[in-house]
Task: structure prediction
Amino acid sequence: MPELPEVETIKNELLPHVLGRKITGVAVFWDKMVKQPTAAEFCERVTGQKITNLTRRGKYLFFHLSSGEMLVMHMKMTGSLLINPPDAKFARAIFQLDNGAVMHFRDPRKFGKMWLAADESAVADKLGPEPLDNDFTVETLTKILRNRKAPVKPVLLDQAIIAGIGNMYADESLYEAKIHPVRPACSLSEVEIKRLYTAIRRVLRAAIKNKGASVRNYIRPDGDIGTAHAEFRVAHGTGKNCPRCGTLIKRIVVRGRGTYLCPKCQPEP
DNA sequence: CTATAGACCTGACGGC
DNA sequence: TGCCGTCAGGTCTATA
Result:
């Protein structure tokens, strides 16, 4: 499932293929994936535009168009963007580029979305800080957690509080910081907040280095998989043992989300 | 305000 | 083999 490291990888690897390219045609096969305007108008307005930049904010991708408009995309859970794939399986939209290449928006479950916006602020303004930015400090995280009674995991998953963390990386970060996911956010000690801060940044950076985690449907633009999941220590770890203490990894449900943890390293509150 | 439930979708997987 | 139920989880919307 594309989270920050996966979307960052898609952006990085797509950039050389799309930067400066003109979109010569667009076909949409699942109209509901276009939030605005209508699918037909979307195709019309995008066709002929040059892609002047490609950026990421949280789990969103922004194709900067020469018209000044922004083409926004979200992969949701099973979306991927592929350059010249071998087939059109699950292709919900296809973009033709002026160098003859094609970009497929592949999405088995049809949750992915794209739309046109005047700029990125409508999306970006609703998001919390980027956890890998320089101005995201221990103090930032301390303020975020201080007054919230909610379990710490859902706080990490709330895009309006911190942008880009999803289910897998929340579990990995909490494991590394030795914090149980249902601990009230405000109950974390100074030392634990410091550990969580370091863990979030290390886990996300390592995953970007490994080009994302291909646990399910995530594929890189060239069709290769990412390898970040090889370093997962609890996420999707049913039947595995904790690499620190050997205890069997446990699966619980927190606010409706499958959650993996080591019951010994992450003691229940 | 928070907190929870449902909706959106379909492939994969387990049980029989 | 094949049918059926359940699960997966990002985000938006509706309801308590």
User: Anything to note?
Assistant: The helical segments of chain A are 4-18, 39-46, 121-124, 138-146, 152-157, 167-176, 190-209.
